[in-house]
Amino acid sequence: MAAYPPQHWQPDDTLVDFLDAxxxxxxxxxxxxxxxxxxxxxxxxxxxxxxxxxxGIVQSGWAGVQAHGDxxxxxxxxxxxxxxxxxxxxxxxxxxxxxxxxxxxxxxxxPVPIAHDQPFWSGRLQAxxxxxxxxxxxELTVDRFAHAIIRAVHGPVHRSKTEQIAKELAAExxxxxxxxxxxxxxxxxxxx
Length: 192
What we know:
Order of helices and strands: HEHEEHEHEHHHH
Helix content: 40-55%
CATH topology: Rossmann fold
Structural class: alpha/beta
Shape: globular
CATH superfamily: Glycogen Phosphorylase B
Number of strands: 5
Strand content: 5-15%
CATH class: Alpha Beta
């Protein structure tokens, strides 16, 4: 389930074969949500993917979400940095790590916030123009979910924005900015 699985993670043949078998799929993952809603989420995911006429990869996560069909694959642990660039869009809970992985991948997103800081990150994704809309988990319906997926996959503005942001992130030296901010806050220069 982790965004950063064990160091030597490799995709299994089933995942590689699925990716090779057609157009890039939509990734759907709800992070560390608890199991109470797993069956409902799996059913909504399958119906929304079918209605949007796209293939999907659903990550089971802590909740154990399962979604099976001709054009749907359920996975457990997967490296988001490896998978996301191979997708048409990413649907996720808008946790910090998954948000960053989606931005770095340069693909549009559909945030489905559940709790904590997720509404904040969802709002940022929409403000950046990489997400067509925010679909809070409490308001998730097949129609709304399918509509958001269609807009993310087929909206050229969202794709263009995400590609631009991915390039900017790739060129940025994030650790250097953090180091300089810490030097300013502490009044001490970091050793070279």
